[in-house]
């Protein structure tokens, strides 16, 4: 089985983009990824960030539903503490029906304090344990709503219920049956959980419930740790961890030659975004420390060129295959190369070509790691 390809759309738009441009770029990117043979596209949800300016990822998926054929979509992630669970369960169920099953559901606890604040979560409650408790309650409610069995639940954060449906005895009764907004096919969608911090509670949740783990690449140690946390919880809950379900998001650019690919990343939209937005954020969230440790350098010396040469996966198809295989040897491997999207709205050709090369020239040459059931 070959590695799968996914696009993750945060979408790192230049802050002067209009909502219309961002939306259009989202729909165009989903059509291009579908045509290139990508397996999935994940779209972020952010309330506060001007570089990550999509508050409602489901709108792009709905717009792309009729213009794409095989690619699967996922919000990555719906931030559960920011939603009413019943409303979200119905939106998700309906969208999964519109996409006729080309849908899986990414969930997260939330990364940005200002976004949590806007949703009524005070600063002192914004620690990852508290947010994860909200995630768990929200999940329980959504699953009950999708089951369509009568309940009323009074929770710590939300109340919700599902009414008992009376048997329809007359033709008039038939007109008042409950609409069905449960996911396509009547079963729950596959869930995916985002993990970020080294001691990730989200990876533990993913393991316990056998959800798909999705990590941001933040250094080899953190990634190994994510897999260990996930697989330990997964085995404890009676499942067999499968590395091919793990998706890892990374900065990837495939060009015709190494030199062309490096120049494109250094001088194009990716370099522009890293210099202004992501490098400062990575320093703040400690991600630079992980990369610097991997290569034994001072984190303050980790600049864009270091990232392009050592951390990102950039080069010709042969180089990119080599880089991924080396990482797989060192870290254990994963199933989906989740490529971070960037703002090529003005001139998409090099970006779309890179996606084509990733799907046609890179992914088929990477063998997936075999399933490992690491003893707990
Ligand atoms: C691949 C990926 C995508 C994410 N997308 C979002 C997002 O769209 N919106 C958001 O607020 N946080 C996002 N996050 C952050 C999560 O909401 C959350 O803060 C983080 O995964 C918590 O991880 P932890 O349990 O490892 O500390 C994302 C994280 C990852 C790894």
From TrEMBL:
Gene3D superfamilies per record: Luciferase-like domain (3.20.20.30)
Broad EC category: oxidoreductase
SUPFAM superfamilies reported for this sequence: Bacterial luciferase-like
UniProt entry keywords in alphabetical sequence: Flavoprotein, Monooxygenase, Oxidoreductase
Keyword Cell membrane (UniProt): no
Transmembrane recorded as keyword: no
Luciferase-like domain mapped to chain residues: 15-329
Highest taxon of the lineage: Bacteria
EC number in record: 1.-.-.-
Record InterPro entries: Bact_Lucif_Oxidored (IPR050766), Luciferase-like_dom (IPR011251), Luciferase-like_sf (IPR036661)
Name of the protein this chain belongs to: LLM class flavin-dependent oxidoreductase
């Amino acid at each position: 089985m070959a590695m799968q390809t996914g696009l993750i759309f945060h979408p790192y738009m230049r802050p002067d983009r209009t909502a219309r441009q961002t939306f259009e770029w989202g729909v165009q990117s989903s059509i291009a990824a579908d045509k290139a043979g990508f397996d999935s596209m994940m779209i972020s949800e952010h309330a506060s960030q001007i570089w990550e300016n999509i508050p409602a990822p489901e709108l792009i998926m709905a717009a792309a539903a009729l213009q794409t054929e095989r690619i699967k979509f996922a919000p990555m992630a719906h931030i559960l503490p920011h939603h009413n669970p019943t409303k979200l369960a119905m939106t998700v169920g309906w969208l999964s029906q519109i996409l006729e099953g080309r849908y899986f559901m990414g969930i997260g606890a939330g990364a940005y304090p200002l976004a949590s604040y806007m949703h009524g979560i005070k600063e002192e409650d914004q620690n990852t344990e508290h947010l994860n408790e909200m995630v768990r309650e929200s999940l329980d409610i959504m699953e009950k709503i999708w089951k369509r069995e009568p309940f009323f639940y009074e929770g710590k954060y939300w109340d919700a219920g599902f009414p008992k449906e009376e048997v329809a005895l007359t033709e008039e009764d038939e007109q008042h049956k409950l609409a069905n907004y449960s996911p396509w096919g009547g079963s729950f969608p596959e869930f995916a959980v985002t993990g970020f911090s080294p001691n990730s509670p989200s990876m533990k949740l993913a393991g316990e419930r056998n959800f798909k783990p999705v990590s941001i690449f933040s250094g080899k140690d953190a990634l190994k740790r994510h897999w260990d946390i996930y697989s330990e919880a997964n085995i404890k809950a009676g499942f067999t961890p499968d590395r091919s379900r793990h998706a890892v998001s990374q900065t990837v650019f495939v060009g015709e030659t190494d030199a062309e690919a490096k120049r494109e990343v250094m001088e194009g939209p990716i370099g522009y975004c890293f210099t202004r937005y992501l490098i400062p954020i990575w320093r703040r969230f400690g991600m630079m420390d992980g990369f610097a440790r991997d290569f034994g350098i001072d984190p303050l010396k980790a600049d864009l060129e270091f990232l392009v040469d050592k951390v990102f996966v950039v080069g010709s198809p042969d180089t990119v295959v080599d880089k991924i295989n080396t990482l797989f040897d060192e870290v254990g491997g994963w199933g989906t190369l989740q490529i971070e999207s960037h703002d090529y709205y003005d001139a998409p050709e090099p970006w779309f070509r890179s996606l084509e090369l990733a799907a046609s020239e890179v992914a088929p040459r990477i063998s997936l790691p075999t399933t490992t059931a690491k003893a707990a």
